[in-house]
Amino acid sequence: MIRALLARLGSLAAVMATVSFVTFGFVSLTPGDPAHTILREQRQSPPSEREVAAFRAEHGFDEPFVVRYFSWLGDAVRGDLGTSYYQSEPVTSLLVEHLPNTLELALAATAVALVVAVPLGVVSAVHHETWIDRTGQIAALVGVSMPNFWLGYLLILVCSLRLGVTPVSGAGTLSHLVLPAITLGTGMAAVITRLVRTSMLEVLEAEYVTAARSKGVRERLVVYKHALRNALVPVVTIVGLQFGFVLNGAVVVEVVFQRPGLGTLLVDAIFARDYPIVQGVVLVTAFAFVVTNQLVDLAYVALDPRIERGGGGDDRR
Fold first, then answer.
1. How far apart are CA 52 and CA 29, in angstroms?
2. How far apart, in Å, do the first and last CA atoms of the chain sit?
3. Same domain, 172 and 292
4. Residue 237, Cα to own-chain centre: how many angstroms?
5. Taking the C-alpha atoms of 16, 17, 18 and 24 in order, what is their torsion angle to the nearest 10 degrees?
6. What integer pLDDT is reported at residue 61 of this predicted model?
7. Cα–Cα distance, 26 to 98 (Å, whole number)
8. How sure is the predictor about 4, in pLDDT bands with cuts at 50, 70 and 90?
């Protein structure tokens, strides 16, 4: 157990080190001098060479890449992600301020996806090769094909501007969360629906399901008590992976609905060349993605203990 835990922590550290290096490298390779850009925006006039030199020295731009990277990495390990060039606030404080809105949106979108996808996938499998199944497959295909930004603007046009039932943008109330959660959760719901359907079709053909039916167990109990739990084992993995993608997709959705989360913070920082914020957002998002995957592995074992024992077979009960 201790060895497995150390292995997981080691893989987590390796992934985060790689992400930090790649992110810092790409930011450093960005064309243009951020000192000139930032000082020009702050002073509304071209900066002097002395001001540029002072800015570069203050933020370490005159140091070699390796020195700057390890200096930033050492501070990041201690929880110091630097200071925003424009807002002059610690990046950590800005992340703490904006992260709750992004997590709220990601969790709401995941809840919407599960509420829609699991029943739809089960019903499609139970009514295999009927009009119900084909309707569910078409709905899943449409959901996975629609871009988030297009669906978001469509929902704003219909629900906010035409019907006036939801706010156009912002955050703070449940009504502000409805449209962004539906927008972000639709694609995830489509993916999960197709997986639940496929997994249920496989489980419903298993021998223990046939045995339960032959004993006269009611079909509802066969589907929802015996088959569904085993069918959800692979779904847990895709839900965990999709949650990581949902965090990334929140960037687009937050911009569309002007929600004050990590997405809008990142986009504003990119346009402003506020590199400490860009690096901080990417690092936090990557950390959340990796931790989610680790939690998914643990949940996978909890649902199917044979995975931990290395067992196999189809005698799931």
1. 19
2. 26
3. yes
4. 14
5. 100
6. 75
7. 24
8. low
Residue 305 has pLDDT above 60, yes or no: no
Handedness of CA 92, 94, 96, 101 (dihedral sign): negative
Cβ atoms of 237 and 300 within 8 Å: the answer is yes
pLDDT at 316 over 50: no
Distance CA 16, CA 177 (A): 31
Q: What is the pLDDT of residue 313?
A: 44
List beta partners, residue 90: 83
Number of domains in the chain: 2
Burial class (CB in 10 A: 0-12, 13-18, 19+), 175: exposed
Nearest-angstrom CA–CA distance, 240 and 300: 10
Exposed e or buried b per residue across 91-105, where buried means at least 16 C-beta atoms within 10 angstroms of its C-beta: bbebbeebbebbebb
- The three-point CA angle 190-175-121 to 5° equals 20
Task: Enumerate residues 6+ apart whose C-beta is below 8 A from 148.
Answer: 183, 184, 186, 187, 249, 252, 253, 256
Residues 32 and 171 grouped into a single domain: no
Q: For residue 307, what pLDDT is reported? A: 54
Task: Please tell me the distance from the alpha carbon of residue 34 to that of residue 23, in angstroms, as a whole number.
Answer: 16
**What's the domain range around 116?**
99-308
For 49-85, the pLDDT digits (tens) are 777 777 777 777 777 888 888 888 888 888 888 888 8
Which CA distances in Å does 272 have to 32, 65, 208, 268, 291? 12, 21, 60, 6, 30
Which residues neighbour 32 within 8 Å (Cβ) at sequence distance 6 or greater? 273
Per-residue model confidence (pLDDT) at position 304 = 59
pTM, to two decimals: 0.78
Which segment of 13-17, 48-52, 73-77, 283-287 scores lowest on mean pLDDT? Answer: 48-52
Q: Which of 46, 78, 110 is the last residue of a domain?
A: 78
